[in-house]
User: Fold this.
Amino acid sequence: MTVSEPVIELTRIEKVYHAERPEIAVRAVDGVSFKVEAGESIAVVGPSGCGKSTLMHLIGCLDRPSGGVYKINTKEVSQLSDDERAKTRNRYIGFVFQTFNLLPRLSALENVELPLLYGRGSAAKERALRALQRVGLADRAHHLPSELSGGQQQRVAISRAIVTGPSLLLADEPTGALDTKTSLEVLDILDELNREGTTLIIVTHDLSVARRMRRAIKMRDGRVEADGSPEVVLGPRLQPEPVAEGGE
Ligand code: ADP
Ligand code: MG
Assistant:
């Protein structure tokens, strides 16, 4: 690979929420700057309410920052219209949520087909089926989400996230609703995608998950408190750390 431009670059990114009373502003993300290179694997950690999900929504182009500059592949995306932002998201980014967010009345295959903008033709079906194969679920293609286990639902959600071939995969507490064994299966899939070149950013409150990544970013009160190797940011591993079950 040649010397690459960063996949994403955040410069003093802010997100301010104005709740019911406009004079009370919540600075959910408060001046965050960092770059991510192609192929990195990053854990975002920090206490509940510190702005992790808000930051992931901004990175994932699900939301627009109140301030700062956000670039994806050197292209400035902070001030795009909703429509342009949706296109950017579809082109570059896959997003996995803690609660899977599958549509309950659609089969696994139909859920995975959704991001394929060119309709539901046979090409889309084949592509969706390959994405399901990728996570080992081709034999569940015609099942409804309610007929699948939590781990299987999350794997469907991962294949929906990767069906468009995104260079950046974002996962917000992807194992937060899963038991230990299932969590490990999901993490193995994410690891494998990362080894194949997909840049991975994962929010987790689970240190043993964070330590699987090569970089950790620790947030506090909407800011980056530490950014570096997991050893340095999280401290050395003292005891075997059990994979925590359940979300925040
Ligand atoms: P985390 O994911 O680290 O738990 P969040 O990003 O969800 O944190 O939230 C950061 C802060 O922003 C919290 O104080 C939260 O209450 C606030 N917040 C998040 N989303 C909204 C919203 N849509 N409107 C108002 N405040 C919000
Ligand atoms: Mg969150």
